[in-house]
Design goal:
The protein has one helix spanning 9-28, and strands spanning 32-36, 39-40, 55-60, 66-74, 80-88, 95-98, 104-105, 110-117, 124-134, 141-151, 157-161, 164-165, 180-185, 191-199, 205-213, 220-224, 229-230, 235-242, 248-258, 267-277, 283-287, 290-292, 316-324, 330-338, 345-347, 354-355, 360-367, 373-383, 390-399, 403-410, 413-419, 427-434, 441-448, 453-458, 468-475. The protein starts with 8 loop residues before the first helix and ends with a strand. It folds into four domains: 25-151, Immunoglobulins (Immunoglobulin-like, Sandwich), CATH 2.60.40; 157-277, Immunoglobulin-like (Sandwich), CATH 2.60.40; 283-399, Immunoglobulins (Immunoglobulin-like), CATH 2.60.40; 403-475, Immunoglobulin-like (Sandwich), CATH 2.60.40. Residues 1-27 have low confidence and may be disordered. It has 476 residues and is mainly beta. The strands form eight sheets. It has a five-stranded antiparallel β-sheet, with no helix packed on it. It is built from one helix and 35 strands.
């Protein structure tokens, strides 16, 4: 038996290989683009938007289906094969593809794809994913989400306080919408706030329940409930009373159940806040605008508890402000100056017995040193402040530079005795004389290193009919 063999067996095997290479080369060059409303849609887009027609919008009761056209472009020169369409996701039955394009799109060609949103039997938001599988070398499995909402006639609950809408789920109480009850004392009468419930829907709103929850719910109470049924466009109101019996900030959550079909507003909620405080006076002392703490034992020039250096027998005055920063009348029963040098400090004006809340009184304290050096005392204020019944603060002053002690006549001379500055240093003390208190003449001078008592003899001045002397100091 004779079997004929082709002369070129290798050439026969190359034919399907060449065809296969041609098909691979064509597939690699295929590119797909999908757009809606003239805007490109990204593969895997999960954010439906009305701008690219992937969001079909809201459809009211009685409305028919809504169609959206999408354009499929073949961006290559090689024909693009559409293998199949598929609807997947949460609600694929509410979306369908009508008038599908031909399975082949020529090179640089395009085809239209129409997607229809079918209103469901019940209201609400519907979502699905459109899947387009092609021979494109990139994005061969093209998917994008679509959405549409069917609106049925229903009640729509809106709650406001002080004519300001309170958003559902509001967690930050505000004074403007009555959700912040502010601060009241435990002795004050309860504080009541009114809230309105409006039905902005097309069917009657039925309020199923109103409750206050939270660890501080005993500080609030529903003093007047709302009506059970609210017709469309109408409103009702309810009142909540805040009556604290303990101190602190109290937060609670209000829940209103209704037949509003919205998943979030079906149980409408918002937070309330109120603060309870004890009714009591509070004393506050300031000097030079700075608050002074009770018991402060470190006098400072900044808050005027330390007086500036003053000449002996001269007066230096500091004004302290007493304020009632509490919420009831402050009674001041006594103000004293205590300490080792208390006699050199004095109060020039007595305060009123009582200070109303926020009332102030300027307390004048005088310092008149009789000795040189540091002088120490304490200001003590006794009041009805329950936490600080005795308010005591240290005072400090420095007794002066020098003191004219005495002027005495000896025979025909006048002897002037004075003390010098207490701090060590180099000082010149000039003695001046006047017969009319207008013209002063220097009659002598004395050097001192400080911290001593000096005597100066003005000779032949004792026989003068009238004479006046004074001492001036210069630091070298």
């Amino acid at each position: 038996m004779l079997i004929l063999q082709p002369l070129f067996p290798l050439q026969r095997s190359l034919v399907p290989v060449a065809l296969a290479l041609l098909m691979i080369t064509s597939a690699v060059g295929q590119l797909i683009q999908v757009s809606g409303n003239g805007r490109p849609i990204s593969n895997g887009d999960t954010t439906p938007s009305s701008r690219d027609h992937t969001d079909f919008g809201q459809i009211g009761a009685g409305s028919g289906p809504v169609d959206r056209d999408f354009l499929i472009r073949n961006l290559s020169q090689v024909p693009l094969q559409i293998l199949f369409f598929q609807r997947i996701g949460t609600h694929p039955g509410n979306f369908t593809i009508i008038d599908p394009p031909e399975p082949t799109i020529p090179g640089n060609g395009e085809a239209s794809l129409t997607v229809r949103f079918l209103p469901p039997a019940t209201g609400g938001l519907r979502n699905a994913t459109i899947r387009l599988v092609t021979t494109s070398s990139i994005d061969s499995d093209f998917q994008f989400d679509v959405a549409g909402e069917f609106i049925l006639p229903a009640p729509d609950i809106i709650i406001s306080g002080n004519n300001v809408v309170i958003p559902d789920g509001a967690s930050s109480p505000l004074l403007t919408n009555n959700t912040d009850f502010g601060t009241i004392t435990l002795e004050d009468p309860p504080r009541t706030r009114t809230f309105s419930v409006r039905n902005d829907g097309e069917q009657t709103l039925r309020i199923g329940g109103l409750s206050i929850t939270g660890i501080n719910s005993d500080q609030f109470a529903i003093s007047r409930p709302p009506a059970t049924f609210v017709p469309p466009g109408d409103e009702t109101s309810f009142e909540i009373r805040f009556n604290p019996n303990r101190e602190g900030a109290h937060r609670v959550t209000v829940f209103i159940n209704s037949n509003d079909p919205s998943p979030t507003k079906r149980t409408y909620s918002f937070n309330l806040r109120g603060t309870g405080v004890l009714q009591q006076p509070e004393i506050t002392l300031t000097g030079n605008g700075l608050e002074i703490s009770p018991g402060d034992d470190s006098p400072r020039l900044e808050d005027h508890t330390q007086f500036p250096e003053a000449d002996l027998q001269t007066i230096s005055t500091r004004i302290f402000m007493i304020e009632n920063t509490g919420n009831t009348t402050l009674t001041i029963s006594d103000i004293e100056i205590l300490g080792p040098h208390s006699t050199e400090f004095s109060i020039s004006s007595a305060p009123p017995i009582q200070l109303n809340p926020a009332q102030t009184f300027p307390l004048r304290v005088n310092f008149r040193p009789t000795e040189q050096g540091v002088r120490i005392a304490a200001l003590k204020i006794t009041s009805s402040d329950p936490f600080v019944p005795i308010f005591e603060v240290a005072l400090k002053g420095i007794g002066g530079r020098f003191k004219l002690l005495r002027v005495e006549e000896t025979a025909e001379d006048i002897v002037i005795t004075f003390s010098t500055r207490s701090a060590p240093g180099s000082y010149i003390y000039r003695i001046l004389y006047s017969s009319d208190l207008e013209t002063w003449n220097t009659v002598g001078s004395v050097f001192s290193a400080g911290g001593e008592t000096l005597r100066f003899r003005h000779r032949d001045s004792g026989s003068s009919p009238r004479g006046f002397w004074r001492v001036e100091e210069d630091i070298l």
